[in-house]
Design brief:
By secondary structure, the protein is an alpha/beta fold. It folds into three domains: 254 residues, Rossmann fold (3-Layer(aba) Sandwich), CATH 3.40.50.10420; 95 residues, no CATH class; 72 residues, no CATH class. It has 23 helices and 13 strands. The strands form three sheets. The protein has a six-stranded parallel beta sheet, sandwiched between helices. A four-stranded mixed beta sheet has the order 8-5-6-9. Helix 9 packs parallel to helix 10 and helix 16 crosses helix 19. The longest helix is centred in the first third of the chain and has 23 residues. The radius of gyration is 27 Å and the shape is elongated.
């Protein structure tokens, strides 16, 4: 896990006096519920100069490093094609591969649970924790558990949840929301992180050391001291999964700090919540992604910590392993022949780091744990973009893009995000039309345009009208204003448009007899 350019990179522990303090935070965990539609949220984010500065520095650094390590591989495009092909094979054969995985995990001593939605998954995890007498769990960074809001669900059951990934811990201590898939605290700088540690660590555990500065080494040490006892005390851990190998039942977690290794080996019980699309058929297939993911995600040639386990092993590591297979909208996404390619995603976040929209608005404006270009196509499908009534926040996400295509160029599994965005925009428009008795202004405009373009005569009349408008409102060949209120006049307040030609091409053609000079 890589953090902002001026932030530390580590994980940590806690002091014995923590037992004398209340362990439960006195504020509820924040949620993306109620986030306004993207245009409104983005407008607020754009006004935050500190946020834009933090994001600009961090994404530029990650982009540059990634480009350098990718350029080292002459076979990079072949790897991308292989990754896309493997993922498409998984999506094609998903039912059979999931059953193969279930058999393999069971044979190795693990237990597989199936969860149709967030409520079922949260209930399964809570029941396992209660059955093992746990009042707290330590957690490996996991997008799937954030997607289902597991932390808040466990807290409602009286179970404390401690994030151990450094960036996730910063977000949790700061009562904040994540803004990046790989670097959840990318919107924070070192000074902000120091202030969070000083203000919040003592409320839930060992306080930050006195005189703490914003130097990375000091912040890292504070994190270690705060977390260490949690690692050693916890009986139950929760993780996500980057991959699972169907043929052997092996689950894989990759990380950069070592906190994941602590969670995956020390507790007595390990619960993994995994989206059903995270499968690879064989060990040989896994080798492709072990090359694609580190370079695309953290600009590393090899991932620092790669943990793999198959079921349980007597006397070594957790003695009970539970794998929760999460659907939560993935089956519905799979049924869309265009949109399903979003399920190829390996959560590298490369698309976020090159997106001009994300760089300026940050991740929280997307109203989901999946921000940026991939979030703009994945979140609407998981939530159900065609549901009634239309959810304005979800429906706004496919439009949170300039369609520049940079996201597709860097995607290690070749998800054509612009294609899916346009596809989902069409669904939003059709759903919006179906929900309104009267057409929206945009829909009415498109109907008028379609009617105009149906016959040459109508088009000719429109061209004459456009030429007349150019004469009335154009200045020096440019339209600078339009009369009256409304969206068109508002558009011209900030933009100029080349005035329509006073004579259309077809009029010129008739007048000159096809360019031969006329009569």
């Amino acid at each position: 896990m890589t953090l902002p350019a001026d932030a530390p990179h580590a994980a940590g522990t806690r002091h014995a006096t923590e037992r004398l303090r209340p362990s439960r935070p006195d504020r509820p965990e924040p949620s993306f519920a109620g986030t306004p539609p993207f245009p409104e949220a983005a407008r607020t984010a754009l006004a935050n100069e500190q946020l834009r500065a933090n994001l600009g520095r961090a994404t530029a650094t990650i982009r540059t490093k990634r480009a350098a390590v990718v350029a080292e591989r002459a076979d990079w495009e072949a790897l991308r094609l292989a990754g896309a092909a493997i993922k498409d094979e998984v999506l094609r054969d998903l039912p059979a591969l999931l059953e193969q995985l279930e058999r393999a995990v069971g044979t190795a001593g693990g237990t597989v649970h199936w969860a149709r939605d967030a409520a079922e998954a949260n209930g399964i995890v809570a029941s396992i924790a209660r059955a093992n007498g746990a009042t707290e769990v330590v957690k490996v960074k996991s997008m799937a558990t954030q997607e289902i809001e597991l932390n808040e669900a466990l807290r409602q059951e009286g179970i404390d949840v401690w994030e151990t990934d450094l960036a996730e811990m910063i977000v949790q201590l700061g009562h904040d929301l994540p803004s990046h898939i790989l670097v959840p605290a990318i919107h924070r700088n070192r000074s902000e992180i120091r202030d969070i540690f000083i203000d919040e660590m003592g409320r839930v555990g060992r306080p930050a050391p006195e005189g703490l500065t914003n130097e990375p080494a000091e912040l890292a040490e504070a994190a270690r001291l705060h977390l260490r006892e949690k690692f050693l005390r916890a009986r139950v851990a929760v993780s996500g999964a980057n991959f699972a190998v169907a043929e052997t039942g092996t689950v894989v977690v990759v990380e950069s700090e070592g906190n994941g290794r602590m969670c995956l080996t020390l507790p007595e019980v390990l619960i993994t919540v995994m989206g059903i699309e995270k499968l690879v058929p064989t060990w040989r297939d896994l080798e492709v992604f072990m090359q694609l993911l580190p370079r695309s995600a953290t600009a590393e040639r090899m991932n620092p910590y790669t943990s793999m386990w198959t079921g349980v092993t007597a006397g070594d590591g957790p003695q009970a392993f539970h794998l929760v297979l999460l659907d939560n909208g993935r089956t519905d996404t799979l049924s869309d022949t265009v949109g399903r390619q979003a399920l190829r995603c390996i959560r590298c976040s490369a698309c976020l780091n090159v997106c001009p929209v994300y760089e300026r608005t940050g991740g929280q404006a997307y109203g989901s744990v999946y921000p940026g270009p991939i979030g703009a196509i994945l979140t609407p499908q998981l939530r159900g973009i065609a549901r009634h009534p239309v959810d304005k926040q979800t429906a706004s996400l496919p439009f949170a893009s300039s369609l520049c295509g940079a996201c597709f160029d860097v995607c290690p599994v070749r998800i054509d995000i612009p294609e899916v965005l346009v596809h989902l925009r069409g669904q939003v428009v059709r759903q919006s039309e179906a929900s309104h008795r009267l057409p929206t202004a945009e829909a009415a405009s498109m109907r008028v345009a379609a009617w105009t373009l149906q016959t040459p005569r109508r088009l000719g009349l429109a061209e004459r009208a456009a030429g007349l408008g150019g004469r009335l409102f154009g200045r020096r060949g440019t339209l600078r204003r339009m009369p009256g209120p409304g969206p068109i006049a508002g558009w011209f307040r900030a933009r100029d448009l080349r005035a329509p030609a006073r004579e259309s091409f077809r009029a010129w053609w008739r007048r000159t007899d096809g360019g031969r000079g006329g009569d």
